[in-house]
């Protein structure tokens, strides 16, 4: 009842000994995730101690490389908490080690670096989520990232979102129904997993009944997703586009949220989605209400 991540996923943390890596390793363990170790070349051979979901103390080994971590633990997911300057090297290392899923939390990764590692990943075995994202959560099973695990439980809704905070809000708004998987794909101009990738996976997942898609101004990802939904998605989709009040030509928050010459506007995205049969809310709460009505009618 999930996409990309489940209770059997074995997770390592690149940057496990850093402040953010350590804090969120603890939270992932508390969410029930099978965190099996971490990577820091300078601290290879040491261990870090945390508490798991049952309250038991766990000692996690720190490895010198992703390849070694996979060999010793059988890990199939990595979460990268690595400073922007070192993110590209960490990503290439994970791709070379053939980790199945790589979640890049880091904000502020240079776009050229993202372009290079995205190109490097093509045709290889690693699915990338991010960068600059909250990651992915399958409630009650596993968390790979920084999404608070106590917002919502298991249920029939699949959620894909460009925005971290709107991911959390939507999960909270629809906590009475719950989620199969919620995935924050990040708002940078170049990202790994897209809306379309997640829509395809949710369409194929037998336990996802309906899908919430959250986009934002800038670029044409939402328009492309609308075209994909029209052709390939049979499940009901509701949408929300952040940025209706954004002034044209101004960069808003996310690096990818740039609107120019009328392209990439919230209104344009809303119209494209509605033309594909997607109900679009004007606010997150209205979007949640649209989903509630759909689920009650199923």
From TrEMBL:
Please name the GO terms of the biological process aspect recorded for this protein, alphabetically.
tricarboxylic acid cycle
Q: Which GO terms describe its cellular component?
A: cytosol; succinate-CoA ligase complex (ADP-forming)
Task: Give the transmembrane ranges.
Answer: none
Name any one GO molecular function: succinate-CoA ligase (ADP-forming) activity
Residues holding substrate = 168
- Superkingdom to which the source organism belongs: Bacteria
Alphabetic keyword roster: Ligase, Nucleotide-binding, Tricarboxylic acid cycle
- Do the record's keywords include Ligase? yes
**In which residues is CoA bound?**
17-20, 43, 105-107
InterPro entries on file? Cit_synth/succinyl-CoA_lig_AS, Citrt_syn/SCS-alpha_CS, CoA-bd, CoA_lig_alpha, NAD(P)-bd_dom_sf, SUCC_ACL_C, Succinyl-CoA_synth-like
Which SUPFAM superfamilies does this entry report, sorted A to Z?
NAD(P)-binding Rossmann-fold domains, Succinyl-CoA synthetase domains
This protein's pathway: Carbohydrate metabolism; tricarboxylic acid cycle; succinate from succinyl-CoA (ligase route): step 1/1
Query: What reaction is this protein's catalytic activity?
Result: succinate + ATP + CoA = succinyl-CoA + ADP + phosphate; GTP + succinate + CoA = succinyl-CoA + GDP + phosphate
| Active site, renumbered | 254 (tele-phosphohistidine intermediate)
Q: What class of enzyme is it?
A: ligase
List the EC numbers from the record: 6.2.1.5
Pfam families, per this entry?
Answer: CoA_binding, Ligase_CoA
**Residue limits of the CoA-binding domain?**
4-109
Q: How does it assemble?
A: Heterotetramer of two alpha and two beta subunits.
The text of the family note is: Belongs to the succinate/malate CoA ligase alpha subunit family.
Quote the function comment for this protein.
Succinyl-CoA synthetase functions in the citric acid cycle (TCA), coupling the hydrolysis of succinyl-CoA to the synthesis of either ATP or GTP and thus represents the only step of substrate-level phosphorylation in the TCA. The alpha subunit of the enzyme binds the substrates coenzyme A and phosphate, while succinate binding and nucleotide specificity is provided by the beta subunit.
Q: What is this protein called?
A: Succinate--CoA ligase [ADP-forming] subunit alpha
Annotated organism of origin = Aeromicrobium endophyticum
